[in-house]
Design a protein that fits this description.
Distance between the termini: 71 Å
Shape: elongated
Number of helices: 2
Structural class: mainly alpha
Radius of gyration: 26 Å
Order of helices and strands: HH
Low-confidence stretches: none
């Protein structure tokens, strides 16, 4: 019962009107929305993971291939 009351109070405390937000985007230094981090490094890591997966799959297939006829 107390949990339902606490949930109701939290829901009623929220305002449905849009707010301006304080301080803007916390991820940047006041420039507004933009890229965060290093996108080139992220792309390089995705390519490296993909190549590693291909190499691991080929190695697994090579090592577990049936020998014989």
């Amino acid at each position: 019962m107390v949990a339902w009351l606490a949930l109701a109070v939290a829901v009623l405390a929220a305002s449905p009107s849009p707010g301006a937000g304080t301080g803007g985007d916390p991820r940047s230094s006041g420039q507004g929305p933009g890229l965060v981090g290093d996108p080139a490094l992220a792309i390089l890591m995705v390519v490296a993971i993909g190549l590693g997966t291909v190499v691991a799959t080929l190695a697994y297939l090579r090592l577990t291939a049936r020998r014989g006829s």
